[in-house]
């Protein structure tokens, strides 16, 4: 099987927990630093600020890759498309590059076939270039493939970091040519003070953040760290790519301890 070419930049700017002026300033700084991939979601409540920062950047639209996600209470035939159009209005865009189902957790237990059909409709209407999912387990993906051709599932955005390597799910995605986008790469900062990560960073003359990003990319994943500080954004984006060797990657892989950060009460039964 020929592996799909992914045009999504392998490093993006995440905006989870960024609100108001902080969201605007962070996205504007990220774009100034050189980021061209911005990730947001309806539930973050910052699509308006993200959109304004994109507009004020004056960067040509075709140079940007913008992702948003549909929330649980909109996963039905009545509300789905209208909610996407509302997101586009807030973002001041005609379309996004990627539209995701945020969680396989519809508020009113709508069947997956219903909201995935609406997701495909959004693509057919030109509201998004690509479609995908987020927080889908192997069982969820198998169910999704009953409605969508696996080739339509551009990515599965999941929590992956050195403390939660999510190996089984990643292997399933690779088997079906579904790209993995890793969120929370720094484990809310915890992994940046890990002795192993620091040791590898010192070996390469890099920062711990650069090592974690290099590990994500070495494993074929896109990652979307978040930061509100220009120095950290510049550090994350630094072109001086860290090239990890096999020993480095094995040492980081060995840090896996199942330390999951995102596990709301409506989360699916996670793969072990």
Automatic annotation (TrEMBL):
Organism placement in taxonomy: Bacteria, Pseudomonadati, Pseudomonadota, Gammaproteobacteria, Alteromonadales
A GO BP annotation: methylglyoxal catabolic process
InterPro entries in the record: AKR, Aldo/ket_reductase_CS, NAD(P)_OxRdtase_dom_sf, NADP_OxRdtase_dom
Marked site (Lowers pKa of active site Tyr) residue numbers: 69
SUPFAM superfamilies reported in the protein's UniProt record: NAD(P)-linked oxidoreductase
Source organism: Pseudoalteromonas prydzensis
Signal peptide: none
Residues annotated as domain NADP-dependent oxidoreductase: 11-255
E.C. numbers: 1.1.1.346
Catalytic residues of the enzyme: 44 (proton donor)
MF terms in GO: methylglyoxal reductase (NADPH) (acetol producing) activity
Protein name in UniProt: 2,5-didehydrogluconate reductase DkgB
Catalyzed chemical reaction(s): hydroxyacetone + NADP(+) = methylglyoxal + NADPH + H(+)
Protein residues bound to substrate: 102
Gene3D superfamilies: NADP-dependent oxidoreductase domain
The encoding gene: dkgB
Family per record: Belongs to the aldo/keto reductase family.
Enzyme class (EC, first level): oxidoreductase
Xref: Pfam families: Aldo_ket_red
Key words, A-Z: NADP, Oxidoreductase
């Amino acid at each position: 099987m020929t592996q799909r070419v992914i045009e999504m930049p392998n490093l993006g700017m995440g905006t989870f927990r960024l609100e108001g002026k902080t969201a605007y300033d962070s996205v504007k700084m990220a774009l100034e630093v050189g980021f061209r991939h911005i990730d947001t979601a309806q539930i973050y409540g910052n699509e308006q600020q993200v959109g304004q920062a994109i507009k004020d950047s004056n960067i040509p639209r075709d140079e940007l890759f913008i992702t948003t996600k549909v929330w649980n209470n909109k996963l039905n035939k009545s509300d789905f498309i209208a909610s996407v159009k509302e997101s586009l209005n807030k973002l001041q865009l005609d379309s996004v590059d990627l539209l995701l189902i945020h969680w396989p957790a519809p508020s009113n237990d709508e069947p997956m076939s219903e909201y995935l059909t609406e997701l495909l409709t959004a693509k057919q209407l030109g509201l998004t270039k690509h479609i995908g999912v987020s927080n889908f387990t192997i069982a969820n993906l198998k169910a999704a493939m009953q409605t969508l051709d696996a080739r339509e599932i551009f990515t599965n955005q999941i929590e992956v970091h050195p403390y939660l390597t999510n190996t089984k799910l990643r292997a399933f995605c690779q088997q079906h040519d579904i790209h993995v986008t890793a969120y929370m790469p720094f484990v809310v900062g915890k992994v940046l003070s890990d002795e192993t990560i620091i040791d590898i960073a010192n070996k390469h003359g890099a920062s711990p953040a650069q090592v974690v990003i290099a590990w994500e990319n070495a494993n074929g994943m896109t990652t979307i760290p978040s930061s509100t500080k220009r120095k950290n954004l510049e550090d994350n984006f630094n072109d001086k790519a860290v090239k990890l060797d096999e020993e480095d990657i094995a040492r980081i892989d060995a840090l896996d301890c199942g330390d999951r950060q995102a596990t709301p009460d409506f989360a699916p039964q996670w793969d072990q």
